[in-house]
Amino acid sequence: MCVVAHPDDECFAFGGALALAADRGIETYVVCLTDGQAATNRGDATSGAELGRMRRAEFVASCEILGVTQHELMDYGDAQLEHVDFADAACQLVERMRRFQPHVVLTFGSDGALNTHADHTMVSMLATSAFHWSGREKRYPEAGPLFQPLRLFHLSTNFFLPDRQAPLPTPWTVRLDIGSVRERKSAAFRAHASQSPLMERTREVFARYGGEEFYTLMASPSAMPAQLTSDLFEGLPLE
Question: What's the CA gap between 179 and 234, in Å, rounded?
């Protein structure tokens, strides 16, 4: 299960991990909290509502390219996640975790990712809380039978964008080789035609660094020392 803030986050940030999982026959579920109406790049949209409809369609196309099993785009306001009712939004994610029952949960780190977006920080906090609360009997009993996911990963990075103030990323524990699905990740990003100026601005940096994705194991049911790995699912019972 991958929890993101905006259409294009699923491919720009997590596309390699999602495509690799699909190639292994692992079911994936992407939950996106907003439809991206506040984006700087707006294509030929003449209103926020029109841009939202456009970006919803782009999100669907991207998820299909990545082989995502299930995808959902919610109705929270773009660039407004810091103002949501935290308990209510976390409950929405707990309900989805208990229903989908993921082994692994992916989301942004609290740094807000390469562009230090406040929505990315908030979705990190919400998804992280939901990961912990999904298995807690005192949290949201109305949200379905308890289920505890096994691993929570935050996105990290080994590079920064030259035109942005650098984030403060968490040191990674997973170095994921996405070479075999790199073109599919790029194709999914191209499906977000409204964001083509962003693609152009980041083309060179992703040409240099785009063969890997980096994640940090933030939580699991077992106490263990941090260790480096190259597989988000190593040792998990995936049958």
Answer: 19
DSSP string, 148-181: --SEEEEEE-S---TTS----PPPPSEEEE-GGG
Query: How many other CB atoms sit within 10 Å of the CB of residue 233?
Result: 17
Residues 151 and 218: their CA atoms lie apart, in Å, by: 8
Burial (CB < 10 A; 0-12, 13-18, 19+), residue 156, is buried
Whether pTM > 0.90 for this model: the answer is yes
pLDDT per position as a tens digit, 173-195: 999 999 999 999 999 999 999 99
Pairing of strands 151-156, 212-219: antiparallel
Residue 29, H or E segment: strand 29-34
Domains annotated on the chain, with CATH: 2-219 (3.40.50.10320)
Place of tokens 């669907």: 60
